[in-house]
Amino acid sequence: VKISVCPYRRSFRQPLLTHHGAWSVRDGIILRLSNLDGQVGFGEIAPLEWFGSESLEQALSFCSQLTGSITAEAIASIPPHLPACRFGFESAWESLNQPQSALELADPLVSSKLLPAGMNAIPALKRLTGKTDTNSTFKWKIAVAPLLQELDWFKQLTEVLPNGSTLRLDANGGLSPTEACRWLEVCDATEVEFLEQPLPPSQFEVMLELDRQFKTPIALDESVSTLEQLKACYDQGWRGIFVVKAAIAGSPAQLRKFCQAHKPDIVWSSVFETAIAQQFIQTRLIATLPHSHRATGFGVNHWFCDRLDQSDFEHVWQTLSLI
Ligand SMILES: [Mg+2]
């Protein structure tokens, strides 16, 4: 199977501010596999180094040592420290070899829409909300400003949330245990869907305790960035919500197997990948698993102004190859 590789860069309309800092450009790699029959399969490597995957440089260096072709055995032996590469190649291989079996989703996926951190969330909420827009889910980043300031913003934000909509909060591991308790008290009083990764992954036991102690559930995200970590948390007794970013989790086949066996409570989420990885995750991974009632985290395409969210992959490829 012949392989071609094309790096891409996407600028955010405005930098994405999280507890990890500001992020302004998404770099990744598109893979195009083709066989002698002329069939084509696309894949995407979208690393997120600050989240625990390999770096873009490591991914590029892995691609550059391939000599224009790849086999199933080579893909199966991509090591665990290259989880985004493993996802990219395995998904491209599956798309190439099962071109006719693209599955339809039983229910269309509902995505949570990502709001910017701080007070910018309020004008963004107004832009994202149509007049008839109820039952939407929104996600707001916290732990980017002092606690009291954010609690005040939160109060203002909840006052303008459309009726019937749901809010989830994401601290990206940036709270102290005391701050997390304060947030959870406030969440319990206002009905927040969940508080995502309040503490750093090293404080797993404390998050386990918080999940028991409060009504508002905790969702693990940074703690479970790869399938290995997901399994480790599951083995240590986590039965709460897992945020899974399949594009950096490693082998999609192994992830599928784990989900089929254990039926964890999953929020499928994005690493700001293009439509190539998103479509694989939605139609070939999620569609093969039991339906989750939770909105996914794919409502992020409004953060970009390019056209890499379109579904004509050959066209995306041509466009990128010309740059
Ligand atoms: Mg998160």
**Ranges with pLDDT <50 over ≥5 residues?**
none
Shape: globular
| Separate helix tally | 11
Give the integer mean of the pLDDT values. Answer: 92
Describe the structure.
With 323 residues, the protein is α/β, with parallel strands linked by helices. Helix content is 36%, strand content 21%. It has eleven helices and eleven strands. The strands form two sheets. An eight-stranded parallel sheet has the order 10-9-8-7-6-5-4-11. Residues 170, 172, 196-197, 221, 243 line the site of magnesium ion.
In short:
This protein is α/β, with parallel strands linked by helices. It contains eleven helices and eleven strands.
Please supply descriptive tags for the structure shown above.
11 helices, single chain, globular, 323 residues, 21% strand, alpha/beta, 3-stranded antiparallel β-sheet
Topology:
Blueprint: E1 2-18, E2 21-34, E3 40-45, H1 56-64, H2 72-76, H3 83-97, E4 111-115, H4 121-128, E5 137-141, H5 147-160, E6 166-170, H6 177-190, E7 195-196, H7 204-213, E8 218-220, H8 227-235, E9 241-244, H9 252-262, E10 265-268, H10 275-285, E11 296-299, H11 313-322
Parallel strand pairs: 4-5, 4-11, 5-6, 6-7, 7-8, 8-9, 9-10
Antiparallel strand pairs: 1-2, 2-3
The protein binds magnesium ion (MG).
